[in-house]
Amino acid sequence: MLAGVILLLIFGWFMYRLIRFSRESTGDHSPLEKQVTYQTTEWQYFTRFDLLSTVFLGLLLLSLLYFTFAYMLPEAEKVWHYTIAIGLVGVCGWALYYIWIWFRLNNQYWQLTRDVSVTLDPTDKCVSLQYPDYIVSFTAADLTLVELVGIGFIGSKLFSGFTYWRFHLTDGLVVCLNHNSSFLTHIREVYFGQVPFRYDGKRIPWIDRVAISESTEA
């Protein structure tokens, strides 16, 4: 009974987020219709479903490792017992290594997201990024290239939630923005349709430290 209630609450939460995202990305409350300003808070960023599920998976793998070392290996008697136990250790270690990379990525993208207020104005198709000490605003006329950086064909699907934008301005500045904290997927064609676009696929979509500094020290 309790499990059913929990599943129902999770389903309701997903439906609410889906309806809200649809309304705010392409509906009446979207930056296609009116000026929108938003900022991703620490609570919103660190209570994402993908983050919580990754934490759960990591704890599950650690528990499995503990079970293997505390019970399986001490009680192993035959070769195939040891084979299974060592195989579990190997699989868990490999998975935990990728989860460790995931959290490093998550921290990088938080550095790009923290304290950034984004304003999208459909009147003049302008994007404004307000940082604690300055503001960067640009339209299509100010750009030479728009890039979206994410995983490539050989990249792990575990990192598919990490993508970011690189806006190359005519004055040489490169401004970066966390793709998952913006609605630019739905407005790129409208706001920057005439600007050259390129997708940069990587095995692991790290954010270059130079790119972070250019966005935080402009």
Order of helices and strands: HEHHHEEEEEEHEH
In the predicted model, the low-confidence regions spanning at least 5 consecutive residues are: none
Mean pLDDT: 82
Name the beta content range: 15-25%
Shape: elongated
Count of individual beta strands: 8
Alpha-beta classification: alpha+beta
Question: Strands across the major sheet, in which order?
Answer: 1-2-3-4
Quaternary state reads single chain
Rg: 22 Å
Largest sheet: 4 strands, antiparallel
Tell me the distance between the termini: 55 Å
Q: Percent helix among the residues?
A: 40-55%
Helix run count:
6
Features:
218 residues, alpha+beta, four-stranded antiparallel sheet, elongated
Structure characterization notes:
α3 (49-75) packs antiparallel against α4. The chain has six helices and eight strands, in the order αβαααββββββαβα. It is elongated. β6 and β7 form a beta hairpin. The mean pLDDT is 82. The strands form two sheets. A four-stranded antiparallel beta sheet has the order 1-2-3-4, with no helix packed on it. The termini are far apart. Helix content is 50%, strand content 20%. The chain is an alpha+beta fold and 218 residues long.
